[in-house]
Structure to design on (410 residues):
């Protein structure tokens, strides 16, 4: 079956109609199997969904459960979850479907135009953590190459190769196999920072490949829901850290900082926002057994954009003590909300925060910077300066992506 091109999915109640694309426009397809099956939300999901919400001309597809070598279109329920950026959105779709009459429920949930031929695309774009998907790219990309389909992938970082100790061996193996497949088949790499682009070139050379075709895809910031004074009702100063609980994010450092501040009598709390990741058992045990857990130490996950926006606005500082990053979305999201940022002195984080964020190295420098921000006068001065910050938009990210995709087939 030919993959029919279409631009907009129009939702009227729970029925759908497809508006055809203008003749000659680019037909791009992408896989969202891992995103739709995710139990938790992370940065890669956010980037993929933000781009898909602004790219109605990119066709999201899912692997057929009993035939991973084939793709299908999304059901209306899956489209709703992706279109609203609500993945993991299966629960929402299920709740909505339960309220419908039987016939409407069937239309909402059923797969239509079941199998599609991805080789009919002009471009196949990997947006998500596709190394975890059923159809290995070492098999898929040669198939697409035979039909002259251009291929591209968004690369957040190459840390599984440069720092394998932070990942499970199976994940490192699958990521390296995925990266090698895209390198071998001449895919274009959309890197989320210049730092990631430089790291990609170095890794490609180490794997025996020539410098790949690549460009930098600028990231966008979470929309500003509100700007409020960064203080809780009981006058506690709230410190915020956003990111999956995994080794390179360095949550343990933030916990050490909290303990030091509390021992000094500081009226602070630390909120951790992020899903449980790999190699995090010891960290989770430390968090949940902390004497202040549930009070001055809180761990939350699965927050809506609006709830996260409120936390960004309420925090006196957002902490980003990562050992390594591809870019650092929490940096620009915090700055967009007018909230001070203290980050590790890392190239990608400096690329994200520029002169608006503060960068620390030693524990003492972190402690000094945080302590200064606990002073109301210093807090007000920093927030006043951050009014000059102009946050990047996801609309611009999507525009850059579309322009560069078009270049691939010229």
């Amino acid at each position: 079956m030919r993959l029919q091109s279409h631009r907009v999915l129009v939702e009227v109640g729970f029925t759908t109609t497809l508006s055809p694309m203008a003749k000659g426009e680019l037909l791009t397809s992408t896989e969202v199997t891992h995103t739709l099956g995710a139990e938790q939300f992370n940065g890669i999901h956010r980037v993929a969904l933000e781009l898909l919400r602004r790219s109605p001309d990119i066709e999201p597809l899912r692997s057929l459960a009993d035939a991973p070598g084939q793709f299908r279109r999304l059901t209306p329920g899956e489209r709703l979850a992706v279109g609203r950026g609500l993945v993991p959105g299966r629960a929402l779709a299920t709740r909505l479907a339960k309220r419908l009459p039987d016939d409407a429920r069937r239309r909402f949930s059923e797969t239509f135009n079941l199998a599609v031929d991805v080789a009919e695309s002009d471009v196949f774009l990997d947006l998500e953590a596709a190394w975890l998907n059923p159809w290995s790219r070492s098999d898929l990309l040669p198939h697409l190459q035979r039909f002259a389909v251009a291929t591209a992938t968004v690369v957040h970082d190459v840390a599984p190769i440069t720092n394998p100790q932070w990942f499970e061996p199976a994940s490192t193996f699958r990521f390296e196999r995925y990266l090698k497949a895209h390198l071998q088949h001449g895919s274009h790499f959309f890197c989320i920072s210049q730092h990631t682009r430089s790291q990609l070139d170095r890794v490609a050379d180490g794997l025996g490949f020539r410098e790949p075709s690549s460009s930098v895809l600028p990231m966008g910031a979470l929309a500003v829901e509100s700007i409020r004074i960064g203080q809780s009702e009981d006058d506690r100063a709230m410190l915020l850290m956003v990111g999956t609980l995994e080794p390179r994010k360095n949550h343990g450092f933030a916990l050490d900082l909290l303990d030091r501040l509390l021992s000094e009598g500081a009226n602070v709390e630390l909120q951790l926002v992020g899903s449980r990741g790999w190699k995090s058992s010891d960290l989770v045990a430390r968090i949940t057994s902390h004497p202040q857990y549930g009070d001055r130490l809180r761990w939350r996950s699965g927050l809506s954009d609006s709830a996260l926006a409120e936390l960004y606005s309420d925090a006196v500082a957002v902490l980003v003590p990562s050992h390594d990053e591809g870019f650092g979305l929490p940096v620009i999201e915090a700055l967009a909300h007018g909230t001070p940022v203290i980050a590790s002195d890392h190239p990608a984080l400096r690329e994200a925060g520029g002169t608006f964020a503060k960068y620390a190295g030693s524990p003492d420098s972190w402690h000094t910077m945080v302590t200064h921000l606990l002073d109301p006068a210093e807090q007000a001065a920093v927030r006043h300066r951050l009014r000059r910050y102009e946050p990047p938009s996801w609309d611009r990210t999507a525009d850059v992506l579309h322009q560069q995709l078009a270049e691939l087939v010229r």
In short: Residues 237-388 form a domain with the Rossmann fold fold (CATH 3.40.50.2000). The mean pLDDT is 87. The radius of gyration is 22 Å. The longest strand covers residues 58-64.
